[in-house]
């Protein structure tokens, strides 16, 4: 029976449209399953974040319910993939900017997760993961990360990719399939013919032929007992095969793979499998439910609601597919989620066209009706989220009108401050008093000079040691050549401004990682600031003194990490907890001071700003530490401090100065003054970090590192590389940096402590604990 002409025409059009597309709307998934051990399953998905239109990556450990949250950066993750022990998040920017992919390892024990960026470049065409590896398509070229053994024939191009435990299969542009890797059962049994869908499990692969038949090969491949022409996607686990049909129902083969009674007949948007676990996103409410192993017997629902699919611009990818109703509200503006395309080019022929198109329509109607309630719900949620976002913004934002109503707060704080801070009272001293304790600013009291002026050491009557900074025109010049030009010639007005800024900032903050202001003196043109004395000087001097004093605490990695964490906490306080937030603008190792206990404190707030719009047209800061984006665009945000802090991290990891002269990385001395043109530590170190060769640039003046320490320092290298990203929006916040450093310090110092016990007597390590 030939189809009625109008359906035939419609069908022809659809076929035409679909010819260049594969059967699945998106080659990316927002749901991933990982198995750490036979009875430990992690289910990861993109879950609604506190912010509108944003989704964070969350993983739930099925046995315990324990959750891990991976906060999205500037560009949220659009797709996820996972294997047995790792998770990947990929950004899918809608503009032409580059995608990035991060990789996290779930260790088999504890809560630590190790993270690194493994890809940054043009958008990928597909992403797939197997039990141990993750692969994608760069354009049409297959590429696997952290899998050196896998080899593809030169010039091979795929339109789709699937990854098993020891093999990778791809659907060639021609429609045929190629499999590569060491699993001979799979690579030697690739079926001939043209296929429209492809999937891989642990030991087997399946594909849907153009004629609509499901074909599976490899070991333990469960064989479908009947023809299933209406398949829209396939998910394979270990000896389990599941398919998603046009009408959204799931059908599985293999022991224990059948959906339980309570889920039979449910409609799904997408399914994923790993090992013995099978999970899917329900069409009705976007809940994630799982089955297949006993962990899910009691409770199938893992997430109440997740981002049901990847967002994409409608024009480019929903051709011939149904737009998921309401998805415009979930995605960045102008984007939607395409549902699995229900009409697949060739299989449609094998079905009566009336049924085919009819069922498509019915589905659409069903989806629309079913979604009215959902959309209402979404609107309520949206309102709530807007409300929350606004509230959040008013708590954290630096820009815009919110600022005006926050400006009053410092005044309130200032007046209540003196009484509140025990021991933190800022006193006004008389010039007479200052002259007395410093012997008229005598040379014997002088301990250094900074951009602001000379620094003296003195003892207060109550016995406290103090550092006294004096703005003095005569003493300002010689030590400031490193600083930005504008600052090397501080005139009276600028000194005055720095003085006020420092006073304003320090009188209203109190944090153990920020240097404390004890008092000030402003009399007869003298501007004097009195601080707590920091017995061990600057981080810069300790780190770059050559040769390094053998007994220096900085010859231990765990101390270096702790100093980094101290300083990061101080800066995080300025950004996130000071009201209004403060941007330091001059973070550098010589502004990080060390007290007698070797605790690091951030100092020198002369350039700090609370209102980025207040600043003049000239960028301020120190060469070598200054955020290039800020320098170029004069747009100041907290991310400029993050950049500068990244430089400090690189100094700690490599032992190189921010700007240094050196011939080569492996040079014995690390630094050969005058040998070549000056180099930036970013240019020097970041390429090694990105190619996973941090060990080559680690400061060799530190005692040989244990494997835990190397792992920790490598990780700090990743954090540093993120901090010095060219664009501020790509950098982490200080809060994220602190979180990362806390984890890594805990891992490193835990290992150090353990090692100290077992190998007592080792020089550096046995000393380290006294600083913790
Ligand atoms: C998981 O399996 C291992 C060994 O197979 C066993 O030692 C462990 O207790 C199991 N854990 C749970 C939560 O069942
Ligand atoms: C995501 O994980 C965090 C814990 O890391 C948890 O507090 C939060 O509720 C989770 N979100 C969802 C939607 O499950
Ligand atoms: C893991 O985290 C949980 C709570 O989130 C905590 O109770 C447990 O002690 C942690 N385990 C380890 C090894 O840190
Ligand atoms: C994308 O990444 C490539 C390679 O890392 C880089 O050369 C290019 O400049 C990047 N493009 C954008 C727009 O960031
Ligand atoms: C597969 O498709 C190509 C065209 O894309 C065609 O030339 C070829 O004959 C097909 N092979 C089979 C076995 O159907
Ligand atoms: C899956 O099948 C393979 C090969 O038949 C077998 O070696 C393996 O033990 C099976 N795995 C499970 C979990 O049944
Ligand atoms: C889905 O389609 C299959 C046949 O393709 C049918 O057996 C099943 O009853 C349908 N389920 C629903 C809920 O429509
Ligand atoms: C989602 O829908 C399913 C049935 O369609 C139901 O069992 C489940 O409880 C729902 N989940 C939520 C969070 O409402
Ligand atoms: C669809 O099938 C026909 C034969 O039935 C074949 O000639 C054609 O190449 C197929 N189209 C695609 C896109 O594979």
From TrEMBL:
Binding positions (ATP): 469
MF terms in GO: ATP binding; protein serine/threonine kinase activity
Name of this protein: Protein kinase domain-containing protein
TM annotation in the entry: 365-387
Domain Protein kinase per the UniProt entry, residue ranges: 441-745
Pfam families assigned: PK_Tyr_Ser-Thr, RCC1_2
Region forming the signal peptide: 1-25
Keyword Signal attached: yes
Keyword annotations from UniProtKB, A to Z: ATP-binding, Kinase, Membrane, Nucleotide-binding, Serine/threonine-protein kinase, Signal, Transferase, Transmembrane, Transmembrane helix
Keyword Nucleotide-binding on entry: yes
């Amino acid at each position: 029976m030939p189809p009625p002409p109008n359906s035939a025409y419609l069908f022809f059009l659809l076929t035409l449209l679909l010819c260049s597309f594969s059967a699945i709307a998106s080659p990316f998934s927002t749901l991933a399953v990982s198995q750490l051990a036979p009875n430990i399953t992690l289910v990861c998905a993109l879950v609604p974040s506190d912010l509108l239109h944003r989704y964070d990556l969350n993983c739930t450990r099925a046995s315990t319910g324990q959750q891990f949250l991976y906060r999205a950066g500037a560009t949220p993750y659009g797709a996820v993939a996972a294997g047995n022990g790792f998770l990947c998040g990929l950004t899918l920017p809608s503009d032409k900017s580059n995608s990035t992919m991060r990789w996290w390892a779930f260790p088999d024990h504890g809560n630590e997760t190790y993270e690194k960026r493994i890809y940054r470049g043009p958008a990928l065409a597909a992403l797939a993961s197997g039990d141990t590896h993750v692969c994608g398509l760069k354009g049409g070229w297959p590429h696997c990360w952290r899998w050196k053994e896998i080899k593809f024939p030169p010039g091979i191009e795929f339109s789709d990719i699937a990854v098993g435990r020891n093999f990778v299969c791809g659907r060639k542009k021609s429609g045929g399939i190629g499999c590569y890797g060491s699993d001979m059962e799979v690579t030697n049994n690739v079926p001939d013919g043209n296929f429209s869908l492809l999937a891989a499990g642990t030991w087997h692969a399946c594909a849907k032929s153009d004629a609509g038949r499901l074909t599976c090969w490899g070991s333990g491949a469960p064989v479908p007992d009947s023809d299933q022409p209406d398949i829209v996607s396939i998910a394979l686990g270990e000896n389990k095969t599941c398919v998603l049909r046009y009408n959204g129902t799931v059908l599985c083969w293999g022991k224990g793979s059948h959906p339980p009674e309570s889920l039979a007949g449910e409609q799904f948007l997408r399914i994923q499998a790993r090992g013995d676990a099978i999970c899917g996103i329900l069409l009705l409410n976007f809940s994630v439910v799982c089955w297949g192993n006993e962990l899910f017997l009691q409770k199938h629902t893992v997430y109440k609601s997740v981002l049901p699919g990847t967002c994409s611009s409608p024009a480019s990818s929903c051709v011939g597919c149904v737009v998921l109703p309401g998805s415009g509200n979930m995605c960045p503006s102008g984007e939607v989620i395409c549902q699995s395309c229900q009409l697949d080019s060739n299989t449609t022929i094998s079905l009566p066209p009336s049924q085919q198109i009819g069922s498509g329509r019915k589905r659409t109607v069903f989806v629309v009706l079913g979604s009215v309630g959902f959309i209402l719900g979404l609107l309520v949620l949206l309102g709530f989220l807007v409300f929350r976002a606004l509230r959040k913004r008013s708590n954290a934002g630096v820009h815009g009108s919110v600022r005006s109503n926050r400006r009053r707060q410092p005044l309130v704080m200032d007046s209540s401050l003196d009484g509140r801070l025990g021991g933190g009272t800022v006193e006004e001293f008389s010039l007479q008093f200052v002259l007395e304790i410093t012997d008229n600013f005598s040379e014997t009291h002088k301990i250094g000079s900074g951009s602001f002026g000379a620094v003296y050491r003195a003892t207060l009557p109550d016995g406290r040691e103090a550092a006294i900074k004096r703005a003095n025109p005569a003493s300002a010049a010689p030590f400031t050549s490193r600083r930005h030009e504008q600052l090397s010639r501080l005139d009276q007005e600028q000194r005055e401004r720095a003085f006020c800024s420092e006073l304003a900032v320090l009188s209203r903050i109190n944090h153990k990682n920020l240097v404390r202001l004890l008092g000030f003196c402003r009399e007869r043109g003298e501007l004097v600031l009195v601080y707590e004395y920091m017995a061990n000087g600057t981080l810069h001097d300790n780190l770059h003194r050559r040769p390094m004093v053998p007994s220096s605490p900085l010859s231990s990695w765990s101390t270096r990490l702790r100093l980094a964490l101290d300083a990061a906490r101080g800066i995080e306080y300025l950004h996130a907890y000071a009201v209004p937030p403060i941007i330091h603008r001059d973070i550098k190792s010589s502004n990080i001071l060390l007290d007698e206990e070797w605790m690091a404190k951030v100092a020198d707030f002369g350039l700090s700003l609370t209102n980025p719009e207040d600043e003049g047209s000239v960028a301020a800061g120190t060469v070598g530490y200054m955020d290039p984006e800020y320098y170029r665009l004069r747009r100041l945000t907290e991310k400029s401090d993050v950049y500068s802090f990244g430089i400090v991290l690189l100094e700690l990891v490599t032992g190189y100065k921010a700007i240094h002269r050196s011939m080569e990385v492996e040079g014995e001395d690390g630094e050969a003054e005058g040998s070549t043109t000056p180099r930036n530590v970013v240019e020097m170190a970041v390429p090694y970090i990105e190619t996973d060769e941090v060990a080559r640039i680690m400061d060799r003046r530190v005692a040989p590192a244990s494997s835990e320490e190397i792992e920790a320092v490598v990780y700090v290298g990743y954090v540093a590389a993120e901090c010095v990203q060219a664009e501020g929006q790509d950098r982490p916040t200080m809060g994220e940096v602190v979180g990362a450093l806390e984890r890594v310090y805990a891992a490193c110092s835990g290992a150090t402590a353990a090692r100290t016990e077992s190998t007592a007597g080792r020089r550096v390590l046995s000393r380290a604990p006294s600083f913790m």
